[in-house]
Design brief:
The chain is mainly alpha-helical and 230 residues long. The chain has helices at 5-16, 22-26, 58-61, 65-82, 100-122, 135-161, 168-187, 193-211; strands at residues 2-3, 92-93, 123-125, 129-132, 215-216. 56% of the residues lie in helices and 6% in strands. Keywords: Membrane, Transmembrane, Transmembrane helix.
Length: 230
């Protein structure tokens, strides 16, 4: 068994870092608050999002810096862990001719790292516990696990149909379905990565159903003087 610890440990940190920790980095930008110009809030009803609307708003979510960081760290961490991209090798792999026990250990170990990473992003504590839909984190995992072709097309299509999806759970369910279909198309029936990918994407939906609690996206209005990380 070959474990590249200098590659594995950073991958685990990237995948397991709780989203809430990104707030710490946001404090670096607080010095800018005294230099920002204050603009009046746009109160046009046609442009104002209903705070009770549970659907996922692309326009709202795409501009959040934390979402971009989630996408990049999840994609990079997945590639570092599993390889799959040109010029990359898995951080945890077995040598040719390894026994079945070593193969199972490496397989379950890598799967466990990804599974724990998704669960860490899912459970969130903001004065009370909630189930957060880690959409951009799972987007990064999808690109890293299924590749640019299958994963990229799945992500593109789910955002195209997103306007008719009522909530984050529906978004992730469609995302998982597209990963299976396009992953099978691009990678073949014998490749298990699409099924693994779909399972990780669908996991928050299963937890939400079992816990009887909705998946949420935090879309709080942030004051002008607050951190740009939301």
């Amino acid at each position: 068994m070959n474990i590249a610890w200098l590659q594995l440990l950073p991958a685990v940190i990237l995948l397991w870092l709780p989203r809430q920790m990104l707030r710490i980095g946001g404090r670096v930008f607080e010095f800018q608050r005294h230099h920002r110009r204050r603009y009046p809030l746009d109160t046009n009803p046609a442009k104002t999002r209903d705070p009770n609307d549970p659907s996922v708003s692309f326009r709202t979510e795409i501009v959040k810096l934390r979402n971009t960081i989630d996408f990049l760290r999840a994609g990079l961490g997945t590639v570092m862990l599993l390889g799959g991209m040109p010029g990359t090798e898995p951080a945890w792999q077995t040598m040719p001719g390894a026994d079945a026990e070593s193969v199972r250990l490496a397989t379950y170990g890598r799967l466990g790292i990804l599974l724990v990473g998704v669960l860490i992003q899912l459970f969130r504590f903001e004065h009370r516990s909630m189930l957060f839909a880690p959409i951009f984190y799972l987007t990064g995992v999808t690109i890293g696990l299924s590749g640019f072709a299958a994963g990229g097309f799945a992500v593109l299509l789910v955002w195209l149909v997103n306007p008719v999806l009522p909530n984050p759970a529906a978004f992730l369910a469609v995302h998982a379905l597209l990963v299976v279909l396009l992953g099978t198309l691009f990678l073949g029936l014998g490749d298990l990565r699409p099924l693994l990918n779909a399972g990780l994407v669908f996991l928050p939906v299963v937890v939400s159903f079992l816990a009887r609690r909705p998946l949420v996206q935090l879309s709080k209005r942030v004051k002008v003087s607050s951190s740009p990380l939301r």
